[in-house]
Amino acid sequence: MASGEELQGRLTHIAVKVMELCDYCQRHSPGAILANNSSGREPPPRRITQRHGAESRSDFIHKLGVVRKELNESLVWLRMLERRTMAPAETIGPLRIECDELCRIISASRKTAEGNMRKEKLG
């Protein structure tokens, strides 16, 4: 399982790469719609940094769910770009793989947090 700092770094890295992809797509008119979509840029700065300020375990779980939702949306955009060959495959492929891995990590983290919350309620 990825540590908090490692996860933060990976999410920040993918956000930067998505920004670079958006810059590329903006210069190529068919991809302009992606450039205006913010889901790929939002998980690290807006959501993950807030997890440290979660008011409760259920708030933390909720925020992980929002991050997962935004990563899933980014994954859909990346798959669409890949299928339309709107950007180089060597750019989109690794981004798609990383985004998918991050979705799985966030899902596992959320599942663990939910399990811990259930144990606390029982214990």
Question: Summary?
Answer:
By secondary structure, this protein is mainly α. It has helices at residues 4-27, 32-35, 43-51, 57-84, 89-122. α1 packs antiparallel against α3 (43-51) and α3 runs antiparallel to α4.
Please supply descriptive tags for the structure shown above.
elongated; de novo design (two linked rop proteins); single chain; 0% strand; 5 helices; mainly alpha; 123 residues
Order of helices and strands: HHHHH
End-to-end CA span: 25 Å
User: What structural class should be given to the helix and strand makeup?
Assistant: mainly alpha
Count of all domains? 1
Number of helices: 5
Strand content: under 5%
CATH top level assignment: Mainly Alpha
Give a count of the beta strands, DSSP E runs of length 2 or more: 0
Characterize the largest beta sheet: strand count, sense, and whether it forms a barrel: none
CATH topology: de novo design (two linked rop proteins)
Output mean pLDDT.
Answer: 81
Corresponding CATH architecture: Up-down Bundle
What is the helix content?
over 70%
Cα radius of gyration in angstroms: 16 Å
Shape: elongated
Low-confidence stretches: none
CATH homologous superfamily grouping: 23S rRNA-intervening sequence
Commentary on this structure:
This protein is mostly helical and 123 residues long. The protein has a single domain (4-122), classed as Up-down Bundle (de novo design (two linked rop proteins)), CATH 1.20.1440.60. The chain contains 5 helices and no strands. It has helices at 4-27, 32-35, 43-51, 57-84, 89-122. It is elongated, with a radius of gyration of 16 Å. The chain starts with a helix and ends with a helix. The model has no long low-confidence stretch (mean pLDDT 81).
